Amino acid sequence: MASPSTPASTPIPASIPTPVPTPGPGPVPATSATSVSVSRTVDAIVIGLGPGGEDIAARLVRGGWSVLAVDEHLVGGECPYYGCIPSKMMLHESRRAGASWARVAQRIREEATDHWDDRVAVERLLGTGAKFVHGRAEIVGGPAAGAASDGTEVTVTPNDGSAHQTWMARRAVVLNTGSETVRVPVPGLSEAVTWTHRDVVTAETLPASLAIVGGGPVGCELGQALARFGVRVSLLVRGGRLLSGEAPEAAELVVERFRAEGIDVRTGTEISGVQAGDVSRYETSHGIPASAGPVDLELTTGDRLTADRVLLATGRAPRDPVEVDEWCRVLDGAAAEGGRPVPGRYAIGDMTGAGPFTHTSMAQAAVVADQLLTGAARRPFLRHAVPRVTYTDPEVAAVGLSEDEARKAVEQQGGDASEVHVARVDLGASSRGWIDEVRGHLTLVARVDGMTAGKADGQGNRSRKNGTSGGVLVGAAVVGPHAGEILGALTVAVHARTPVAELARIPWAYPTLHRSIGDAVTQFGSDVIGAESAAGPVS
Q1: Is the CB of residue 71 less than 8 Å from the CB of residue 98?
Q2: Which residues pair with 309 in a beta bridge?
Q3: Cβ atoms < 10 Å from Cβ of 147
Q4: How far does the signal peptide extend, from start to end residue (predicted)?
């Protein structure tokens, strides 16, 4: 598929197709003859209505713009129907005494997703004044350059089979087409036994045993939740550890907890072959034939494993990846090669590569809306402090740079790796940690360089400029209970490039787990904290 940054004819899927039924035609009238076109002109067209797309459509309408919103699937996107919300409901239920899959499955269907019906979300969107079509959008001309230009032409094919519609975006097209599950081909593994996270979310009953391929956040969260509902879970991880994007000590604590809960964790393991029984034609809620019996998996380690289902949790990839600048403007080439913004073309969410998180999409939506409504690029999206949380027990959370990333960044800028300083504390050593018998760690990464501590003279000595001393926090990681909540303060500090000296002055509440932030700060020397703060409080 061609990149959406190409001004020529470019198909842009509004979202992944699914057998789950969606409502009928949207509010835009169309004739039943597919050869007839309906033409409309609006200020902006938003393609893809995940959380960020829905948000920016509403923001633009409130700002006085006319907006067409298009999505092929469900308004609200993956998060409320198949991702963040249902999975956290599962984890919540799994922690309760007498945890019941039937209870949480019913709650997901009735309370969270309305049986995967987005009528409420569509009504909410229409209530803002936006126009909406359930369908597929394709950019066929443009690009939009401003209110006086011809704009960007978009063809919309409604889901109900009615006439194609030709729309013109006078000012902007905002892309938000999301991501989809990466499917790893396994010879002999049929759809009859293969699940994705969507099948877990929509399941009314659970298999007795499940092999999960992948040890990232999705595999770990679902694996722990399902194991607590009585499923025999095996995690097959190609690499050397779970959660490869996080600190090794975090992965070690998660694995220790998993094994204590009966989860079979196998690292350095892949499926090399499959032997499956006959497949019946019994149809599940997703129309996938169910296996007549378990499958026998041959593993690269030489072992064999029997499971009723195989869950692919091998990550997600953007459907239509694009390069964007810090104002989320689509570039006509790679940013590193001097790509230039395509007039009137913006992208947010997973497709930008800034982090496959709802909060990333929402933050980018705010950046684009501010830019379009004010006519000024005054609020860039900053990637250096995007937080992430894996909601296992224990939770794993991080923001900014790890120790290795910080050292590599310093060296790439011609600095010395000694500019990076790390402090690590045991959460269990804090008063609250001791009371609650906590196992976990908190890690801070700080940097002292010419930007924060003055320029080095010819002898390598650093002078202090403008009275500022010490370093700034560039990264943090937490593993343990409520790690995501502890990360809140650290996200603010990394985002604002807060001097460590200021963190040293804060009276952290006692007894809390987040007080460990202050304990970690005291491990830094005067070069990082600053001589004044290291000596005591400043009056």
Answers
A1: no
A2: 210
A3: 9
A4: none
State the DSSP string of 101-170: HHHHHHHIIIIISTTT--HHHHHHHHHTT-EEEEEEEEEEE----STTS--EEEEEEETTS---EEEEEE
> What is residue 531's predicted lDDT score, i.e. its pLDDT?
55
Q: Is the dihedral of CA 82, 84, 89, 90 positive or negative?
A: positive
Output the six-digit token pair for 83: 């991702």
Same domain for 165 and 25, yes or no, is yes
Rounded Cα–Cα distance for residues 250 and 270 (Å): 23
pTM of the predicted structure, to 2 decimals:
0.85
pLDDT tens string 14-43: 433 333 333 333 344 433 334 445 568 999
- Residue 160 in any domain: the answer is yes
Contact 183, 312 (CB under 8 A): yes
Within-domain flag for 104: no
Which of 76-80, 184-188, 263-267, 529-533 is the least confident region? 529-533
User: In the prediction, which pLDDT does 99 show?
Assistant: 95
Phi/psi for 278 (5° steps) reads -65, 150
pLDDT, tens digit, 9 for 90 and up, residues 397-419: 999 999 999 999 999 988 888 89
Residue 399 in domain: yes
Q: Say whether both 393 and 517 belong to one domain.
A: yes
What residues make up the domain containing 211?
A: 194-314
Measure the CA–CA gap between 464 and 94, rounded to whole angstroms. Answer: 53
> Which residues are within 8 A (CB) of 421 and not within 5 positions of it... i.e. 6 or more apart?
445, 446, 447, 448, 471, 524, 525, 527, 528
Domain boundary among 333, 352, 374: 374
* 532 vs 319, more confident: 319
